[in-house]
């Protein structure tokens, strides 16, 4: 490479490589941010989201509403596990995160016994660590729920989880973690006396239920496929599941004006509204930014 | 594909981020592999040890690597650093072996001639060994580049933005176009990297452009070299890199 | 390092070795998918590779395919195939994806094993009166075994590594324990199962490495261990007249 003729060429190559290294170091910005990154003034609010398309839409609702209200917003979506973003929230790297009351309460207080929406919310507010505040919860909820197909419900006369007690050959489908969750197979056994096998179907849960691989499935309540496939959500009179309403978690020092905007958005979001947003994402296959803009405009929350 | 058209901006942004995620491990892996490969080549005792170690690193499945690196290095599990370091380790693993083999493939005659003419070890390495090992190095580098681009998609599991987002998000929302686009774009980026490296190699090593088959060379091929070189020419190394590791 | 002690504790905990979802079950599932994919891949790729190596036709295609196949993201392919096939067929779909990942290295190994054989040997075989089939089976295949096993070794690593990800499409394997550990924040499970799959990969690698070394015919092995780099001229001339002129690996 260092022959007499090629010294220049090799030097050029090294320069190009060095430049590209420098560029990779300098390049920043999240591709999921429709806005380019600006210099962050003190009013920049960093909004995060889970690796869940529905959560991303909700985060975008807050983001665009805040932008319309004059704030600079930086988006940091698809962060993934609570293990990652809760520390980030506590450390101040993220200022706002859309969460779900019940799941978050179980994260901070695994032995909680609260199950009703207001109970859960009250406990959550006290359980929140220093530096974080829980803003108003929305009526929209997106919680775990056990569903069966309409035919199965009819054939076995099912309307609540208690009705499952006499049915044979039950197999529960859900994420791998469901196996060990307090509301999983062990919870069903303890609270309702229902024995189920478990199949880790993960993201294929709804398809598996429809295909007959499992006959009871854990589907998030805001999943549009419940309605689309006529699934029957089994009632939960004993409160196996915690209520899990949409609730924004924010840094304690968030400006009041921002809080008001966020609370207005949360108040305007209804359970049916959330399902409709999810439908736009999965059926109409629209992007989250588009969906958010349309919804905010309709509710008059933009500007 | 209307989905592709309406999400073009997202696809392009993700591609750029993916490229950025892949380039660093390729370059750092290459740079670190040269001294490592040289040690493996130069000191016969260490050759087995280093290559075995490096081979062991390569056998580690990507998800397992993402899991064991944080406790070992004290980095966050869901951090980009986790993915970058894992990708660099894989790149290093492939490249170190390639460097060792490349240096070993340099004809001992040529090396001895260089020493006889008066090159010191240091200048002989840079002016004789490395240029002659260039083609094999390039082949290894191409394998590394393609593997890294493909492997970077798995980084989405630990939160590193890449084209892998199109897989997980598309699967969640059951949008086939998204998953398909992700696969196509990943392959495209990998092939572009491969092509660019090939062109880079031709530019930096112009002697590679000389005809590979003996029939096109100016010299009348000796029968012995014809029998060997037509199937295993040093200038067209296909056997080893091709059978080496690939995307996981 | 208490994370690692926790991981080892999880690995030896008797409770994890019985019941459903136990370690042996996961390992068996994992090996099951790996074996199925490898067998299918061998059935397809080895004859094809031998044919290309023997006749010399389709060389560029093989090289091109193996090169391009390396670019395929296995993660994405899993999702793609399962989406297209539907969830009922997710097991065959994932075995097919694993097979597709295993074919290129095996193909490359089979083909290059035959490619590097000294042409003079083939000529000699032909001149002695062997038929094409005899040349293939008695000469080329045995001489090509080392590189073939190298390809198999590479393929099995691909498959084991990708099989870790099938948990994302609702199947089992050791990846299940890793992902469940991540979701439940159980660091001992996460780390323990990661170590388990690494150990599995290493064991399989070692097994195939042994095959690679000992599948070589005796006569070939005798002439192989010549390091071109350090031998003076005289011995090198001898080396080139032995069974294969392939460089020592």
Radius of gyration of chain C: 22 Å
The overall average pLDDT of chain B, rounded, is 82
Oligomer class: heterotrimer
Distance between the termini of chain C: 38 Å
In the predicted model, the low-confidence regions of chain B spanning at least 5 consecutive residues are 223-248
Pair of chains with the largest interface and how many residues each contributes:
B-C, 60 and 67 residues
Largest sheet of chain B: none
Characterise the protein shown here:
- The complex is a heterotrimer of chains A (303), B (248) and C (249).
- Helix content of chain A is 43%, strand content 15%.
- Chain A contains twelve helices and ten strands.
- In chain A, helix 2 links the parallel strand 1 and strand 2.
- Chain A is globular.
- Chain A starts with 6 loop residues before the first helix and ends with a helix.
- With 248 residues, chain B is mainly α.
- Chain C is an all-alpha fold and 249 residues long.
- The radius of gyration of chain C is 22 Å and the shape is elongated.
- Chain C starts with a helix and ends in a 10-residue tail after the last helix.
- The chains are: A alpha/beta (303), B mainly alpha (248), C mainly alpha (249).
Produce the secondary structure layout:
The complex is a heterotrimer of chains A (303), B (248) and C (249).
Chain A: H1 7-26, E1 44-48, H2 53-68, E2 72-76, H3 82-91, E3 96-100, H4 101-108, H5 117-127, E4 132-134, E5 144-148, H6 150-156, E6 171-174, H7 185-192, E7 197-200, H8 205-211, E8 216-220, H9 224-228, E9 232-233, E10 246-251, H10 256-268, H11 271-282, H12 288-299
Parallel strand pairs in A: 1-2, 6-7, 6-8
Antiparallel strand pairs in A: 3-10, 4-10, 5-8, 5-9
Helix pairs in contact in A: 2-10, 2-11, 2-12, 4-5
Chain B: H1 2-6, H2 8-42, H3 44-59, H4 62-73, H5 80-104, H6 108-117, H7 121-151, H8 164-172, H9 176-204, H10 223-232, H11 239-243
Chain C: H1 2-12, H2 23-55, H3 59-70, H4 74-85, H5 90-115, H6 119-128, H7 132-163, H8 174-184, H9 187-214, H10 218-224, H11 233-239
């Amino acid at each position: 490479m260092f022959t007499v003729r090629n010294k220049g060429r090799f030097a050029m190559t090294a320069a190009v490589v060095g430049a590209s290294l420098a560029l990779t170091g300098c390049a920043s910005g999240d591709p999921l941010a429709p806005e380019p990154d600006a210099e962050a003034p003190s009013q920049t609010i960093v909004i995060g989201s889970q690796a869940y398309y529905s959560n991303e839409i909700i985060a975008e609702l807050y983001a665009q509403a805040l932008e319309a209200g004059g704030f600079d917003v930086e988006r940091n979506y698809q962060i993934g596990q609570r293990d990652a973003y809760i520390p980030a929230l506590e450390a101040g790297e993220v200022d706002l995160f859309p969460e779900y009351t019940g799941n978050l309460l179980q994260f901070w207080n695994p032995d909680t016994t609260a199950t009703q929406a207001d109970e859960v919310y009250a406990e959550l507010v006290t359980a929140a660590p220093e530096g974080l505040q829980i803003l108003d919860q929305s009526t929209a909820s997106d919680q775990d729920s056990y569903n069966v197909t309409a035919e199965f419900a009819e054939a076995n006369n099912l309307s609540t989880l208690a009705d499952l007690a006499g049915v044979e050959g039950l197999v529960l489908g859900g994420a791998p973690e469901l196996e060990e969750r307090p509301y999983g197979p062990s919870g069903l056994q303890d609270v309702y006396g229902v024995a189920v096998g478990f199949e880790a179907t993960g993201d294929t849960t709804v398809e598996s239920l429809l295909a007959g691989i499992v006959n009871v499935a854990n589907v998030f309540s805001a999943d549009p496929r419940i309605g689309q496939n006529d699934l029957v959500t089994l009632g939960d009179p004993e409160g196996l599941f915690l209520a899990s309403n949409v609730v924004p978690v924010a840094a304690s020092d968030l400006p009041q004006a921002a809080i008001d905007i966020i609370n207005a958005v949360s108040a305007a979001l209804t359970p049916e509204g959330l399902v409709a947003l999810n439908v736009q994402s999965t059926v109409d296959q629209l992007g989250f930014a588009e969906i958010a803009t349309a919804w905010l405009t309709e509710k008059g929350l933009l500007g | 594909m209307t989905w592709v058209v309406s999400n073009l901006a997202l696809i392009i942004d993700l591609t750029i981020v993916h490229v950025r995620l892949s380039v660093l491990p390729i370059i750092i892996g290459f740079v670190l592999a040269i001294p490592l490969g040289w040690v493996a080549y130069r000191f016969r005792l260490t050759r087995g040890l280093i290559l075995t170690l490096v081979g062991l690193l390569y056998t580690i499945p990507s998800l397992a690597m993402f899991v064991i690196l944080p406790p070992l290095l004290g980095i966050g599990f869901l951090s980009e650093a986790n993915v970058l370091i894992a990708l660099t380790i894989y790149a290093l693993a492939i490249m170190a072996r390639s460097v060792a083999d490349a240096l070993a493939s340099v004809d001992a005659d040529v090396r001895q001639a260089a020493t006889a003419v008066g090159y010191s070890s240091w200048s002989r390495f840079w002016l004789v060994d490395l240029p002659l090992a260039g083609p094999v190095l390039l082949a290894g580098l191409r394998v590394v580049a393609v593997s890294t681009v493909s492997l970077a998609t798995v980084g989405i599991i630990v939160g590193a933005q890449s084209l892998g987002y199109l897989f997980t998000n598309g699967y969640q929302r059951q949008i086939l176009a998204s998953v398909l686009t992700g696969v196509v774009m990943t392959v495209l980026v990998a092939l572009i990297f491969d092509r660019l490296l090939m062109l880079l190699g031709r530019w930096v090593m112009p002697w590679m452009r000389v005809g590979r088959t003996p029939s096109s060379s100016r010299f009348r091929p000796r029968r012995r070299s014809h029998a060997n070189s037509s199937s295993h020419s040093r200038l067209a190394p296909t056997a080893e890199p091709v059978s080496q590791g690939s995307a996981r | 390092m208490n994370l690692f002690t926790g991981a080892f504790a999880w690995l030896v905990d008797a409770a994890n070795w019985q019941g459903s979802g136990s370690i042996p079950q996961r390992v068996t599932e994992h090996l099951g998918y790996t074996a199925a994919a490898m067998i299918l891949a061998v059935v397809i790729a080895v004859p094809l590779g031998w044919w290309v190596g023997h006749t010399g036709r389709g060389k560029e295609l093989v090289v091109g395919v193996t090169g391009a196949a390396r670019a395929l993201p296995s993660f994405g392919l899993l999702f793609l195939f399962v989406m297209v096939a539907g969830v009922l067929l997710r097991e065959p779909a994932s075995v097919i994806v694993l097979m597709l990942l295993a074919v290129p290295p095996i193909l490359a190994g089979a083909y290059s094993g035959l490619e590097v054989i000294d042409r003079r040997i083939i000529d000699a075989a032909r001149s002695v009166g062997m038929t094409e089939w005899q040349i293939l089976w008695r000469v080329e295949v045995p001489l090509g075994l080392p590189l073939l096993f190298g390809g198999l070794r590479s393929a099995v690593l691909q498959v084991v590594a990708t099989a870790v990800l099938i948990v994302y499409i609702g199947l089992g394997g050791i990846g299940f324990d890793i992902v469940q550990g991540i979701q439940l924040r159980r660091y001992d499970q996460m780390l323990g199962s990661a170590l388990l799959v690494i150990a599995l990969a290493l064991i399989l690698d070692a097994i195939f490495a042994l095959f690679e070394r000992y599948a070589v015919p005796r006569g070939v092995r005798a002439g192989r261990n010549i390091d071109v780099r350090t031998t003076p001229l005289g011995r090198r001339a001898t080396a080139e007249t032995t069974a294969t002129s392939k460089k020592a690996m």
